[in-house]
Amino acid sequence: MCRLPMIAGLFLALIVLLVESRHSPAQDSISQVQTGELKTLDGHFPLKVPATKQEWETRAAELRQHLLISTGLWPEPERTPLNAVIHGRIEREGFSIEKVYFESLPGHYVTGLLFRPLGNDVQGNRPGVLCPHGHGGRMDRFNEKRIQEEIAAGREKYVESGQMPKLARCAQLARMGCVTFIFDMLGYADSVQFSFEVAHRHQNPRPEETRPSDGSLPSTWTMYSIDAEMRLQSIMGLQLWNASRALDFLASLPDVDDDRLAVTGNSGGGTQTIMLGAIDPRVKVSFPNGMVSTSMQGGCYCENCNLLRVDTGNVELAALMAPRPQAMTAVNDWTREMITDGYPQLKQIYRLVGDEADVRCDHFPEFPHSFNYVTRALMYSWMNRHLALGLPEPIIETDFAHITDEEGKVWNEAHPQPTTVGPEHEREVCKWFNAQANLAIDELWPSTSDEIATFQSSMRTAWKTILSVSDSAKFHASPMKIDRSRAGENVTGASAVHGHLERVFENGLIPLTIIQREGQSTSGPVVVWCLDGGRDRALAAGGDESRLLKMLLDSGATVMLPDLYGQGEYERLGDWSKQRLINDKRHYAAFTFGYNRTLDAQRTADLLQVITHAKNRSADPVALIGSGTVAPVALAATAIAEHQVARAAVMLDGFRFTDVTSYTDVHFVPGAVKYGDIDALVALAAPTPMLISDSRRIGGRARTVYQMLEASDSLFSHDAKEPLAAEKLAEFVTSP
Question: Quick check: pTM over 0.85?
Answer without folding.
Answer: yes
